[in-house]
Amino acid sequence: MTTHQGPGTDSAIEETLKSYLVDRLKTEVTFDQDLFESGLVSSMFAMELVVHLEKTFEVSIVGNDLRLANFRSIRSMAALVRGLRDGDGRG
Amino acid sequence: MADQAVPVKCLVWDLDNTLWRGTLLEGDDVRLSDAVREVIVMLDSRGILQSVASKNDHDPAWRKLERLGVAEYFLLPEIGWGPKSESVRRIADELRFAHTAVAFVDDQPAERAEVAFHLPEVRCYSHEQVLGLPGLPEFTPATVTEDSRQRRRMYQANFRRTAEQSAFTGPDEDFLRSLELVMRISGAGADDLARVEELTLRTSQMNATGVHYSDTVLRELCADPAHDVLVISMADRFGPHGAVGVLLLARNAGFWHLKLLATSCRVVSFGAGAVILNWLIDQAFEAGVHLVADFRQTERNRMMEIAYRFAGFATDPCACTSAYGIPPDPDVQRLHLVPDHRNAPSTMRLVSEGLPTSWTPRPRHSRRVSERRDEEDHVVTSTPTDTL
Fold this sequence. Notes:
The complex is a heterodimer.
Chain A: H1 10-25, H2 43-57, H3 74-86
Chain B: H1 2-5, E1 10-13, H2 34-45, E2 49-55, H3 58-67, E3 78-80, H4 84-95, E4 102-105, H5 109-118, E5 123-125, H6 146-149, H7 151-167, H8 172-178, E6 181-187, H9 190-202, H10 215-223, E7 227-236, E8 239-252, E9 255-263, H11 272-287, E10 290-296, H12 302-311, H13 319-322, E11 332-337, E12 348-351, H14 363-366, H15 369-372
Parallel strand pairs in B: 1-2, 1-4, 2-3, 4-5, 6-12, 9-10
Antiparallel strand pairs in B: 6-7, 7-8, 8-9, 10-11
Helix pairs in contact in B: 4-5, 11-12
């Protein structure tokens, strides 16, 4: 999945998210890092993160899609965004 | 007249010929009457915040307020030359108050009209009404608690905190730790109930059900052994935050029903909602019960929805929710969670002493749903797929 290139692909989504997080969290993060486990993400920031994803990628994240597992890492957020864009019937 | 019952949480004052007599820029020796000063002090003591929206040069106007001895009463003053609707909007945004909770007083009909046009929910008053404001129902909170009396000072402490935070470089969590936060969760005593009631009335953003519980109802629930009314208060090195949350829980056999969680918007940035939820989930895990939570979406409580969802609450079906029946309010979602062990928060010290003795799970609560199925007909039964 991450071998595709160009905007809208997983790797593009991941890069976009990474630069946002590095800027916002003032620290380096990796694609697979558990952002909640490592204490980088507060519940206040969780809200910001949800809204940021919705705005940047023009998706709407509701219901059971709001589960923490979807936001744990850059990788899982990118998968969520892709799933919502593909309209694969999540949630 | 339902409008009148909505309490004003912040009054924004014009200065010239409203707060004081005279026009500063025209060189008048402006005067603050004792009667107006009394209004300011009285509203402050009731926990109503006050601010300023004035067309003046900032420095001389603020110096004048200081010389008159009232500057300390005004938060987030907007003294400049922009439209007043913008000033009022910024004040409401900074305080995170809905426009319905904000009032504006100005002697100029044009200024009132400008604010009313852009912010139709903001209540506007003329200078002639100033002395009568404390007598109006929207400026008369049902109860005035210790927390209301110190509310303005708590906000001021919070601004100092925020200033320190924006100067802080490093991860948010390190800043939170530097605050030396302490959260206390305890059963609501009679004295706390007024604070709790005030909180549910004032809290719109972080109220999970959007339901206001009256003092009478809360008192009844406190006396009801099947209900727990818990009060959450917080403090840090800048001072007390006062009562910042309330949690209403009904303990049923096999599952606990979280009917309400409301937290003050003042403590949102500390992740208070998540800390409380994780504490409750851990308590439920220890007691071997499931958790069911009511959630009603409002325009302003998405943050709370995210806190619930991120804590693990979901709409997945479970025997305990389906057997419980549908909520009386069709807009209320019933969320469910199978508790697991949660670690103590890393950003604050959590003290939960002083819980009501009835809190200690009775033996039958400490067993798991699947183990009790046969011995108690009336309890919610679990399905074979329902595992803990």
